[in-house]
Amino acid sequence: MPINYNADNKTFTLHTRNSTYQFQVDKLGFLLHLYYGPKSQGVMDWVLAFADRGFSGSPYDAGENRTYSLDYLPQEFPMQGTGDYRSPLLVVRNGAGTFGCDLRYKGYEIVDGKYSLEGLPAVYDDEKNSQTLKIYLEGQRFHVTLLYGVLPEIDIITRAAILENFSDEVITVEKFQTACLDFTHGKFDLITFHGRHMMERQFDRRELHHGSSIIVSRRGMSSHQYNPFMILADHEANETSGNCWAMQFVYSGGFKAEAELDQFNQTRWQIGMAEEKFSYSLKPGEKLIAPEVIMTFSDEGLQKLSHNLHTCIRKNICRGKYRDITRPVILNSWEAFYFKFDGKKILELAEQAKLLGVDMLVLDDGWFGKRDDDNSGLGDWTTNEKKLGCSLSELVEKVNSLGLKFGLWVEPEMINEDSNLYREHPDWALTVPGKSPVRCRQQLVLDFSRSEVREYLYNSLCKILDTCNIEYLKWDFNRSIADVYSRVEEDQGKVLYDYILGLYDFLEKLTANYPNVLIEGCAGGGGRFDAGMLYYTPQIWCSDNTDAIERLFIHYGTSFAYPMSTISAHVSACPNHQTGRSVSLKTRYVSALTGAFGYELNPAILSDDEKNEIREQIRDYKANSELINDGKYYRLSFDENLSAWEYLSLDGNSALVCAVIIANKGNMPTVYITPRGLLPGEFYREKYTGKVYASDALMNIGLPLNKPSGDYESYVFKFERVKN
Fold it and tell me: Which pTM value belongs to this model?
């Protein structure tokens, strides 16, 4: 069984196909972490080393035993107030204003299946191969239930926690993070993914030194600046070898992740909700849930680590109709017209899209309210019929009559001061009394912690969806949250957490009532690209930066945690609207070869040759879409000179290999790329040339790329196993 309990030494062992996780209940009732690594047997409590260490205090009930201190022992759920001065997961203040936690083990339960979380996204298991471990901890005023989910076949372990106040007074949770791993020794690198708007998830690897390495989002969302995902790796670990661990937060709000190398060369690694603007009061009987963390381990390098996460996200986070099917090829109106369109232009764009072989036309920002620029109209989700020259339903019918699906851009969480909704309900915006609000893009944030706000917006969207044949929504979120104040909440430290719960509640209702509508997440591009949003939106607009070359860097970083099927990437106009760079139509296509493919341009201004090339691109994409959506993804090469990647079918019979020369240099050496994962001892035929290659040689010495004929040359190879 995946979860085992040894009553003789009070040890819990969690097994997956290739890993083992183990912790122990000690004599004082604390949980001591023992092991997370390659699959192993036995009890590993010999890893614990006890010593009398100066300035490391002991719990009172340790008596005269000075060798016992939680200041250095590896723990499963460290809390403030136990004599551990490292960063805790839990900080609680009681009704008298004093701090201090002392939770002890009270019992456990093992159940078949994967736990779920009330109001929060979490990994699910339709195959019923999982198990759940519940650990019960109790203190004087509250208790905590630790939840562990084990999906053994995909090497995934999840963690969550629930805190419940059983006292007769109000307590306040000042910090409640979900998971940590304590390593008693080892030298590690920390891999994180930083960025900014239009340059998200940039790979960063650095050696851990004494002190804390922290990434945090204080923006009310997971953010462009840091992704709620990190990797801890041995120094020598690379794509195909070495030990590495991953933590991925299933939450779309602010977060904090930290790795601390302590005074005794031990490493504590943790992730959970951010502490800033969080101070959550609980009345007697109330509870608080720490969102889920996905963990996985690989002793075969970063490649295997990513494969584990990709499988989990694709099959156990994403849901609904579009989880397993090819998404429609989209033409979005944004870079074609921005706000400067009318109904006639949209229909002309639809006609062009149909001639190219596009599946769906998406009408982006500017179709509603008083919305001819980004200074007004947000909140007024009624069609601007004067601008369109007809109702939205009539426009949709006209587009559908061409044989195209119809999609629509919305931004329900936002409001402009110049809107009817704000004039009627200014208190619905998050603003601080007596203080002028912080504006961003001339918009404020609606208080999604309030049910009446959500209900109004939900009904507004339903009126549109119930009267129009809309099959796609692009759900945008174009600013960070700065002013945190809800008019109906006494405890302002609860607002940001309850906001995210409100967002999830809204999306859960929307996806349940409109299961045939594909929702694409967006937050100024990739500002909320996280596993929490993917639970409701199976694809996310990866970045507002559509430059084909910069997208290579963004896709590279994104690929460590997220499968390509979740990345929405489009071929855009050239010169690029963000960078001014000019790149061939072919290379723009190769760069955009992900699971959610489309275009951001106006076909009317293209040449006949370019239109024919796009038709061929769409045919080629559809021929390879199943491989891209479901296949294993390999990062073959990435640096300032070359980006190369591969999609491999699960049976190993087909492979799609792509490459882009980033830097073309004079008299440059021949560049080789080496595919991975092909079946050994087999032969593969390359589709476009007809050449046959021995798989072992191809994976060993690689495939030479033809000399680039210009800047940003791109290459695509399709290999099919030659069957006897």
Answer: 0.97
